[in-house]
Amino acid sequence: MADLDYPYLARLVQKTLQGNSNAFAELYAATYQRQYRLAYNYFHDPYVSQDTLKQLYILVLAHLDELKDPQLFIDWLDQINHQICQQISANVAAPKFHDIRAARLDVKNASILLSSILESCGYEANSMPLSAIDGFQAYRKENYILQKAILVIVIACLLLTPLLFVIPKVHVEEASRTNSQIFYRIGVHSLLRVKSVTATLGGTPLDVYETAFKVYTIAPEENGTVTATVTLENGQYVTRTIDVTAVDTTAPSIVSQEVIDSRLVLSLSDDGSGIDFEKIKAFSGGGSPVSMESFDEATGVVEFDNSKTPLELFIPDKAGNTTHTTVGAVSP
Predict the structure, then answer these.
(1) Of the four, 34, 115, 296, 313, which is 20 to 30 A from 45 by CA?
(2) Where is the chain membrane-spanning (predicted)?
């Protein structure tokens, strides 16, 4: 498509909100090259740029319902990507030399990223391969409607002196969660422009993303007390605290082990996101992979051939926490 087709993109946004992973794959195909180039211009590093691209689309997919006008999807996407790149570039130095050909992401790696994004957000894998829908061209420069609207608001506020003493109204709520993260939404209600929104967890700064007009998102990765401060252009500010208790930071545990009919039977438990049975790995003492005989997600029971013990086990949960342990030979 040589020209922007905003109505078509808007329909894809609506279908994605209904859980259609193929629709999201089309949105991704239409935009990922543009977003990858933007990130590459910051870092000149293909690996950092790919990590940035994954973080961008996970955040967008988790907060797509906050986009009030689906036809502004491209502008919204660019805005969030700029914020992510600016925050990461403060800690990542761009290499002195770089290959300009790396500014384009190949379809194979783009497909891998798409599958990882859908899995991280709990969506089904898309049934259409990315290579079949990767016909969209990079979209043109964003328009300036939102910027003009903000300029008009700023001028109006400067003319209304009493508003310089207005204190913002701030509302904090849980927005959504995935297997590995929980997102909190910070809504600001004020006629004045927001100067800054900051958040800390135990004194450590957290990344803050503007996901809609005067709506901000934070994603703490640990439990604790988050302190969020919203400051307006007039210097007035409001501070809110959030008690975070739902982040899964605990790895699975082995409750019991026994031998039944020459099979090593392990009973596993995880009180958080749940055990990812498909990704359990085991290795013999010689380092050779050992396959599970069976597993039961309902009871948390997995079985191995007892004759292959001792076993080195890697037991992950769905939030990415992994228990690494060695189980020795067990007598019947």
Answers:
(1) 115
(2) 149-167
